[in-house]
Amino acid sequence: MDRSQLLKGTTELLILGVLKDGELYGYEIAQRIRDRSGAFIDPGEGWLYPALHRLETRGALQASWRAGRIGPRRRYYKITDAGLTAFDAQSAEWAQFARSVRLVTAGGADG
After folding, report:
1. Cα–Cα dist 80/98, whole Å
2. How many Å from the N-terminal Cα to the C-terminal Cα in the chain?
3. Which of 20, 63, 70, 108 has its CA 20 to 30 A from that of 102?
4. Each residue's pLDDT tens digit, 71-95
């Protein structure tokens, strides 16, 4: 199965999940997702930054520019109360979806 298809619908959940632990800039968000997934999920700029922008527009994230210790300024993202609420809802929905997929794929007698 194409992993990009699996990422559809989970991108925002993944971003909100790593930002629950504190502020990060884009590259750090991607790295955290990569690390936590055991490198199974490798976020690219093509889906990460549009999702960050959508979340910020909806009020789930706040962003601010800061000077980097070394190199250029970086845009840091912080989850908001609305973002935490969205995370909880999406997380519960994803858990139900995954549970349902397991039930269907496990097979068994239908009565």
Report:
1. 26
2. 31
3. 20
4. 899 999 999 999 999 999 999 999 9
Q: Is 84 exposed, middle or buried (0-12, 13-18, 19+ CB in 10 A)?
A: middle
Q: According to the model, what pLDDT value does residue 111 have?
A: 46
Whether the full predicted model's pTM is greater than 0.90, yes or no, is: no
109 occurs within a structural domain: no
**What CATH number should be reported for the domain holding residue 18?**
1.10.10.10
Residue 18 clears pLDDT 80, i.e. is over it: yes
Could you tell me the two tokens for 65? 């520019």
**pLDDT beyond 80 at 65:** yes
**How far apart, in whole angstroms, are the C-alpha atoms of residue 79 and residue 69?**
23
Of residues 35, 68, 69, 33, the one with CA closest to residue 51: 33
Domain count, the chain: 1
Domain-embedded: residue 17: yes
Whether 6 has a pLDDT exceeding 90, the answer reads no
